[in-house]
Amino acid sequence: MKAFDGPHVENFVDIRDVRKVYSRRQSSVEALARVSLQVRRGEFVSLLGPSGCGKSTLLMIIGGLVAPTAGEIHIEGTLVREAQTDLGIVFQEPVLLDWRTSIENVMIQVEARRLDRKVYLPRARQLLTSVGLEDFQDKYPFELSGGMRQRVSICRALVHRPRLLLMDEPFGALDALTRDQMNFDLQRMWMLDPITVLLVTHSISEAVFVSDRIVVMSPRPGTVDTIVEVDLPRPRGLDTQETPEFSRYVRDIKQRFAIHGVIRG
Amino acid sequence: MKTIDRDYSKILYPTATVALALLAWDALTRFGATPAYALPAPSDVLRIFLTRWPVILSNAISTTVVVIIGYGLSVVVGASLAVMISSSRAFEKSIYPLLVGSQAIPKLALAPLFVVWFGFGLLPKVLMTFFISVFPIVVSTVQGIASVEPELEFLARSMGLGQYRTFRMIRLYRALPSIFAGLKVAIALAVVGAVVGEFVGSDEGLGILLLRAIAAVNTPLLFAGLIVLTVLAVILFGLIELSERIAIPWHVSQRSKSA
Ligand SMILES: Nc1ncnc2c1ncn2[C@@H]1O[C@H](COP(=O)(O)OP(=O)(O)OP(=O)(O)O)[C@@H](O)[C@H]1O
Ligand SMILES: [Mg+2]
Q1: Which of B139, B140, B135, B236 lies closest to B195 in space, CA to CA?
Q2: Which atom of ligand 1 is least distant from the CA of A49?
Q3: Distance CA B209, CA B227 (A)
Q4: What is the pLDDT of residues A158-216, one digit of tens each?
């Protein structure tokens, strides 16, 4: 990758030579070797890689929640030193607050930031409606299915209109059908309001379906292996997945993994 | 509808069990299988209730007061200690091991010491109650506050919450189920503590009623005292459970669903 040379306005997120070593008393694990990556404003980028290659770690470093061992992250030209607050995060698990209803779970974002409830409550309701949870706004998490909970957590990540959305395998625990639906909904929401999105995923077809670019990572310690531009027209629907172009992207990425011995056979 | 059914059965089953036990008890005494000084007939116990109720009631009130004051002290002190332990590493390191170590002290054996220090009266009984019931409250509260997964912590930080607001908006609620578990263990212990306190240094209360009944070989009175004590413990436990239902319905309903 090219070295960084001065601020690029179009680089919304700028990851420069980030390395992460987790050290415990005796042992240490190198999660990320040396990752550099630029993400443009409004771009939908997926991080795709085998388990343990440091995708979650990278995402948390971008959010300022985990400190890198070396390297820097700049968001809109500003060095990330502490937890970033102008973003939304969707974790692998929904991490909802059990004592709050769906709408209150979304609104905690607003309360925590001391934003105007009157302004954001309608927005929260509209977001829940847009993911099909209109009738579940006043239900508690234990009354929701796993997929519904994850949809609430997506609304929570979006309600405050963040500049950046970080998603860590948000649909990992869902069945294939729900997953397709969620990806479709996600794309629709993003097309209405194209914020910058970084999505971590295991699934090649999911990455091809939703992304502008796919960052294929090597096995641990993670590095950027290749970056694939996905040139499929939007909105992408079920029929997109049947096209030869779609299959070609999927096959090419599989081949990259085969080279690294991630997929054998 | 289903929950109502369940509530009925919740009352019905224990009631039926008690009724059966009463019948068996009555049969045992009626056919002279046991001597009357060991097992009085239910009717004898009932007669004691009818004739001696003013004494029983005043002693029961005295014990209840001790339990409530001692338990209240446990809740306030226990929760405060737990919050301090949770929020300060230094405090955790210096206090928590001592607290855990203090559990090795045979607490019941402390009762006479309290009498030496504080004399007869309310104080030693309340202290005994407090001492015996505070530990589970501290431990369960500390555990509850600590039981926040890293993602939730990340979420809090990404929303710009500081230590204090994370505690107030997230940790505290997160801790409530665990706190209530501790409160329920503690209330049962508190009743034991009050009775032990009365045994050693008091002239009133259900503990004293029991001692006097034994001294007078008045087994029906002894049984009456035990029954009142049991009812008191059950009522207090029920009150805590009721407040749990009101305070954390989201948890209680989740629990009954998985049960
Ligand atoms: N808090 C931590 N302490 C120590 N080691 C960690 C920690 N978090 C992650 N690791 C290690 O860093 C490596 C990368 O972990 P990470 O969670 O970033 O992988 P991942 O790509 O998200 O994997 P997956 O796809 O399975 O979620 C792993 O080997 C893991 O053991
Ligand atoms: Mg991960």
Answers
A1: B236
A2: 21
A3: 12
A4: 999 999 999 999 888 778 888 888 888 888 888 888 899 999 998 999 999 999 999 99
Q: Which residues of B fall within a CB distance of 8 Å from A60?
A: 154
Question: Residues near A59 by Cβ (< 8 Å), separated by ≥ 6?
Answer: A47, A89, A166, A168, A198, A200
- Rounded to whole angstroms, the Cα distance separating A123 from A107 reads 10
Show the domain range for B12.
Answer: 1-34
Judge if the beta carbon of residue A54 lies within 6 A of ligand 1.
yes
Tokens of B143: 């555990």
CATH of the domain at B248: 1.10.3720.10
Q: How many domains does chain B have?
A: 2
Strand partners, A21: A30
Atom of ligand 1 nearest to the CA of A20: 12
- Asked if residue A58 belongs to a domain, the reply is no
Chain A residue with minimum CA distance to B165? A112
Are the beta carbons of B226 and B163 closer than 8 angstroms? no
How many whole angstroms separate alpha carbon A164 and alpha carbon A63? 9
Widest Cα–Cα separation across chain B: 75
B47 forms beta bridges with none
Does residue B137 or residue B9 have the better pLDDT?
Answer: B137
What percent of chain B clears pLDDT 70, i.e. is strictly above it?
Answer: 95
Distance CA B182, CA A208 (A): 51
Identify the CA nearest to B135 among candidates B199, B63, B193. B193
A65 domain residue, yes or no: no
Residue A140 lies in a domain: yes
ipTM above 0.95, yes or no: no
Question: Residue B189, CB half-sphere, CA atoms under 13 Å: how many?
Answer: 24
Distance CA B31, CA B9 (A): 33
Q: What is the reported pTM?
A: 0.82
pLDDT average, residue stretch A147-154: 92
Q: What whole-number distance in Å separates Cα of residue A46 and Cα of residue A59?
A: 11
Residue type at position A239:
D
Q: Is A115 helix (H, G, I), strand (E, B) or coil?
A: coil
B75 and B51 in a common domain: yes
**A43 closest CA partner among A186, A195, A237:** A195
Domain extent at residue A152 = 95-161
Is residue B153 located within the same domain as residue B213?
yes
Question: How do residues A93-125 score in pLDDT, each as one tens digit?
Answer: 899 999 999 999 999 999 999 999 999 999 999
Radius of gyration of the CA atoms of chain A, in A: 19
Span A210-246, pLDDT tens digits: 999 999 999 888 999 999 999 999 889 888 889 999 9
Question: Are residue B4 and residue B109 in the same domain, yes or no?
Answer: no
A164 pairs with which residues across the strands? A87, A196
Q: Could you tell me which residues of chain A have a Cβ less than 8 Å from any Cβ in chain B? A: 60, 63, 65, 83-85, 87-89, 91-93, 95, 97-99, 108-109, 111-113, 140-142
